[in-house]
Predict the 3D structure of the following.
Amino acid sequence: MDTATAPLTEAELGARIEPLASLLRPGGPVVVLTGAGCSTESGIPAYRDAEGNWRGRAPVQGQEFAADPAARRRYWSRSILGWPYFSAAAPNAAHHALAALEHHGTVTTLITQNVDGLHQKAGSRAVTELHGSLHTVRCLHCTVRLSRDDIQKRLVADNPAYATARSTPAPDGDANTSEHVPEDFRVPHCEACGGVLKPDVVFFGDSVERAVVQHCMEAVANARLLLCVGTSLMVYSGFRFCRHAAESGVPIVALGMGRTRADEMLALKVEAPCGPALRMLADEIGAPGTTPI
């Protein structure tokens, strides 16, 4: 769900927030499911627009990455350019407000479809990363895990000319740059076994680990409310929790801008930018610490 700033006055925003504040005032357990719209105010672009349609090119597929050396060159040649933007991103008001709501005892589980780690940076602790973290790289052969920052150093050392190319940030650490990738672009490999290195995330076409899904399903079934923030829910890995909530009799609320796949299931929809709306929401129910120090 896109969270482009809407022209709302404070009074208008307050009027939209109050029904959600009333639902949250009794306290938890509340499960929050976040998507890309939660991080756009931190400078990380979303894959989809307000109608849930793709922006630009589709992301790399997991099977393609594992099987095709050319696909890996394309991925890493863009990642070397996108990583500096992505790794420098800081939590915004939405992340800080959700952390405050957790500390207040209202939010008991936060399921994120994002791979940026910004919820944890803001202070959230009850976080389940549904799609993994881009800050870690994993060997597909020996399963060793490495720091993405360390991989960046290797990429820059092996491709010094390419590392200075011009680009603009794209979703999830990608970059908007030329589709042409030189044959001599050097892709990082596992120094322990020589295997293929892959970001420790669930690529499109991959499956979320069963244990992770089960944990989230149990949290949703036991929740008093499922709050979806900044997500279009177009990807099934997140949408399934709305279906599970509906089947379990758990009310579903969506906060953000634009259409969601679960619109017909919603008990309430709050059309508002995530950061300002969540900050006001946390203030309304008395959750302290919404402003970062």
Remarks:
- Confidence is low (pLDDT under 50) at residues 2-6.
- The longest strand covers residues 132-139.
- The CA atoms of residues 169 and 175 lie 5 Å apart.
